[in-house]
Specification:
2 copies of one chain form a homodimer.
Chain A (H helix, E strand, L loop, with lengths): L2 E4 L6 E4 L38 E3 L13 E5 L13 E4 L2 E5 L3 E6 L13 H18 L7 E8 L11 E7 L4 H17 L3 H12 L3 E4 L3 E4 L10 E5 L11 H22 L4 E6 L14 E6 L6 H6 L2 E3 L3 H10 L3
Antiparallel strand pairs in A: 1-2, 1-6, 3-4, 4-7, 5-6, 7-9, 8-9, 8-13, 10-11, 11-12, 12-14, 13-14
């Protein structure tokens, strides 16, 4: 059973995920090994290699856990958290633990092993975003869950262990630290000025333009003022909306267009870089929020997290966002 | 001039280090390239390739910036922060920036290009720790500086770009987020119980023994309760002391012994893994603190920081610290 443990000094939680356990010797070899086409559990015809699907989109029909799907969502076979059980907390001297209740799912984005997200069409990407939303709406009904993170790791240096294009969803029994800091920062701004800070940022970036990458009717894409990594890029809806899962279908198409163009530009500028993206959305149990504003943060994995970052929480970034944005604006995709 | 920028939502600072600037195309090639023996600026005889030294230990004499040194400290040629100038803050709409005042130094740990820290003798490691202390005591006199971080990146996956064994020092005009969280957590514990939380942890780990790796007269080495990475290991002085630079010389030898044995065990267990270590010490401007307790955190770089970690601040660790500690206790070095 996975376990959540709290650092007694900082209050930071970690997930000790014993189901994914490796013997220490496993760390000696092949850190970056990814599972390729031969053993791929996400390819059509190998549906039995994953736990039974919780969602699939099938334009041309076919029954569950058989080929014919366009997007398929399955529980992670080696979950960081487990759905079964009650949420128990206990102490051990000055230490605290909680059992690892939650969900860990994989969104298989395409049946085609060789496709990357950046090479997909807008309708294909929209379908993936719809799958994110459908899973969030379903999991939101589980009252034990407080927050859902959706993210993608592309490339071995960004933490992928499976080559076949996929994203992941982790639903947690607590609101994680970084999310709480973001929510609280946004709430403070709203208290002072009665405005959403993300709406303010969108307004300033659109006016100033030096960090702007692109925009369409509904979304704006820019390099943030204080990026942690070179070419960090945010995709933010122009209209205020706190929860990703509350977006109506019409707007997901615009989001797909913005995400696709962003990934294509990053690919053309940097040569298919490894990257992570994270959907930042309001916690599940809060009502729609006037102060928080959902968005996607894309982080190319071009630098390593090293001693300074571990010790300070600061990041050193050698590329000013104004230069990254200019490069992404002008690059030919 | 490097620049500190504050994220308007979370309050997180990043260093935009334009002096280290690379053209975007530089990111396309050879992310992990490290500078080897041929172009090494840290080898004896190449002293002119670095800025003039700020400290050297020379058992057998020799003048500054010539061969003959055992340990040599130089300003970083591509500093993340610069010593010159006054500390200015300014706004840009809703955004904040500060100029990048601070120091960034490199501690060249040995004249021998091929030596690793783990292979050095105790007196050699003690000499390096002394250099850390001497530089901290010197920089402490600069009233603009609020905190000093000393850290080491070993191996390309841990962020090293130069092969020759070295550590780094960054002195900052602000107390970084992670340090502030640690200090505040320790202060809360002290308010409630009138005890240092690290002293409490040391007591519990020595009693329980399941996470203990080794101890000597003055230091205890253990796997922390909530480790962020597999085989994360802490080296903590048994006697309460908030500031690394306040340690008397006699105790640095015990620290060197504990650090050496820790690195040798990690090397034997994991096969010379890439790692970071960070010296956690009290900020410069606080008086000696009853609640904070300096220590060293060693983090093997065996897993990648991926989307989930970026989004949550949580870490997923597949190796329970009890298993890691047992392995490190029993491994033959």
């Amino acid at each position: 059973m996975p376990e959540l443990r709290k650092d007694p000094v900082t209050g930071r939680w970690v997930i000790i995920s014993t189901d994914r356990q490796k013997r220490p010797n496993d760390f000696r070899f092949d850190r970056a090994a990814t599972i390729g086409r031969d053993q791929c559990p996400f390819c059509p015809g190998r549906e039995s290699l994953t736990p039974p699907e919780v969602l699939s989109y099938r334009q041309h029909g076919g029954s569950a856990n058989t080929p014919g799907w366009d997007v398929r969502v399955v529980p992670n076979k080696f979950p960081a958290l487990q759905v079964e059980g009650t949420l128990d907390r206990e102490g051990e001297g000055i230490f605290d633990r909680m059992n690892g209740i939650g969900a860990h799912e994989v969104i298989v984005e395409t049946p085609d092993h060789g496709r990357t997200l950046a090479s997909m069409s807008e309708p294909e990407i929209e379908r993936i975003l719809s799958a994110y939303r459908d899973r969030m709406l379903d999991l939101k009904q589980d009252r034990r869950l407080r927050h859902i993170l959706i993210f993608k790791n592309h490339g071995a240096a960004a933490g992928t262990t499976l080559e076949h294009s996929h994203s992941q969803l982790i639903a947690l029994p607590i609101v994680p630290d970084f999310v709480r800091e973001e929510i609280e920062g946004a709430r403070r701004h709203h208290e002072h000025r009665e405005r959403c800070i993300f709406c303010d940022i969108v307004m300033q970036e659109r006016k100033e333009r030096s960090r702007l990458v692109l925009e369409n009717e509904e979304f704006v894409v820019f390099a943030p003022w204080a990026p942690r990594s070179p070419f960090e890029t945010w995709i933010v809806p122009k209209r205020h909306e706190s929860n990703f899962e509350a977006e109506p279908k019409e707007r997901l198409g615009y989001c797909a267009q913005a995400l696709r163009s962003t990934l294509k530009r990053l690919g053309a500028a940097l040569g298919d870089p490894p990257y992570n993206f994270i959907v930042h959305s309001n916690p599940l149990r809060d009502t729609p929020s006037l102060s928080y504003h959902w968005h996607i943060e894309v982080m190319p994995a071009l630098t390593h997290v090293a001693g300074f970052e571990w010790g300070s929480g600061f990041h050193i970034n050698p590329v000013p966002p104004e230069e990254a944005a200019e490069f992404l604006r002008l690059v030919i995709t």
